[in-house]
Structure formats: structure tokens, C-alpha cells
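Hello, quick one for you while I still have it in my head. A protein chain has come my way and I'm curious about its shape. I'm sending you its amino acid sequence along with the C-alpha cells. I'd be grateful if you could look everything over and explain what you see. Here's the protein in full, and shout if anything looks odd to you:
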Amino acid sequence: MDKGIKLLAILGMTGSGKSALVEALTERGVPKVYFGGMLYKEMEKRGIERTLDGASENAFRKEIRETEGKDWVGRQAVAEVKDLIAAGQKRIVLDGLYSWTEYRLFKHEFPGMLTTIAVVAPRALRYERLAKRPERPFTPHDAQTRDYAEIEDAEKGGPIAIADYYILNDGSLDNLQTKFSALLKEIDF
């Protein structure tokens, strides 16, 4: 595989600001592979409705990992990335690489091509952001339940802990974008 290909995974807990960074890249024309989209497509195929609180998604993620393997979402995402590469894409952003299993799969399938950036923010600030977001706002209890599910069931902590780079998002969106732009220059993405 062409070594000029770069995959950039944006990691972080819910409310950390990772979606804003993914969006900044897609606005620049970088194609996105959305891991959650794999779940949503499969839920739709099976006639499972998505609930506002994310409970149906969390339950389905857990179920599919038990029935199809912990790497099911990762395998779907690998196939999508390979299709993009075959179509000539050299830069791809990964949105939603959650688990340690997915991380290891991508490191194996795309050696030397994956860079990870973890967006981190204080928990209280994340919860405040989640309560104010227009789509699917979370109560503090909802946010904590989501955190626990992501850490315990989705193995989300591992990739964040071993990320290549970290961005602290404890200020404005402009401040986050400035930090991100500087990091993109540093890593030549």
C-alpha cells in the first residue's frame, strides 16, 4: 500500500470537541469514515430504532460485538478506508475509532499510516457542553452513563491513553481550531 497515505483518527470522550475537528477536516474536503455510521446502517437494516438518549445504539453496539466480534465495526471501517484508498484518496479522517480492538486492527491493516489525536476536556465542561447541545442533549446522569459505557463496554480508554497527540479543549471553539491547525501543520496532514 502507498506509504503516502495518511489516516488521522480523532479520539475523545463524548463532549470533548472531536466532532468539531472532524467537521473542520471534512469542510476542507478530507473524506471521513464514520464508525458510528456502520452501527446506524446495521441498526436500520435490522429495523432497530435509534433513541434520543443513545440507549438503543449502546445496546446494539454491545450486542453486535458479542455476536459478530469486538472488531465488527472496525472491519466495516477498514473496508471503507480501503475503498477510499482505491479511489485515490491520500488523506482520510477516522471519526469514532473507539476501541482498543479497532485501534490494533487499524495499526495492523495500515502500518505506519495511522496517527491519533485525542481531544480532552474536563468532565464538568464536557457535561455542560452536552447539556447545551441542540441535538440529543444529555443530562449529567445521561453523560455519566455514556462515559461508563464507552470506557467499560467500548474499550474507549486505551486508544485515548496511547494517542500520538493530545489537544486540551478547555476554551472556545476558535481556540480549539487554532490548536488543531497548528498540530495539522506539525504532522503534515
